[in-house]
């Protein structure tokens, strides 16, 4: 079957996840496209790249800027618009079936102009989690599916390793979303006093830039100053990494801390952390309850004190950490993009090769 993904966001192709840090949504497109190609489908991905390239059986092509550019195939069996409903009708492609893959907040789908566009193109709508589907609009005649994401192979294939000493907690909470300040409060006043030798590694390009003296958004300035002062309490800022390097760093950590947001329905770092065998402590917000086996591979905590207490336990209790790490990597929980591709074939889209 001929499948075309279209994403008008940042430029990337199938090589990017191995070469540079990349957002979870973009890595999802690369992962699913590769998995579908491995299963015998003819897969094309159009993004904001300049030159075409072929990677792992997938044709990566420039997204056309006007109707005269001919980088796309004339016909495709399935057109998958990534994030933006406008891509369902703006591309010069004849498609047998149209799909909107909702990778972000679904609130924009309720806008009248978007509802009209969906009504005209009548795509299947694919969500990342049940929480995202519940936050979206009523179907309006469109078929809606929930397709649980997979994890990239560098995380799934990472060999278990002994936790670092002193113990390390990691997070990729975004510094502009507000929840990182909340996490730093818990660390400074609760976790660090209980485990003085523990380290908290914050993966953030913005914070790294700010600490290096580079310009950052004005609202971030106080947080940069705060992180600098918290170095004495074990807080360290790390640059985001390509998939393999990040998996290698996280496999020796002790716990992933996910403060979360109600609108974060994907929880991309939580997926990677669990795949590498990293127990998680999370607030039950957004899609987090669908990413953790609560009480087994991590803990969903009801309040601030519980967040602190459970984190301290995992940082200090070897048996608790090992049990949760083993559960996170248990065969019933591991889900690769190849599993996602198989789900698409057998359950929803009835793809035929």
Automatic annotation (TrEMBL):
The keyword Transferase applies. Pfam families: Glyco_trans_1_4. SUPFAM superfamilies: UDP-Glycosyltransferase/glycogen phosphorylase (SSF53756). Keywords: Transferase. One of its GO terms (molecular function) is transferase activity. This is Glycosyl transferases group 1. It comes from Rhodospira trueperi.
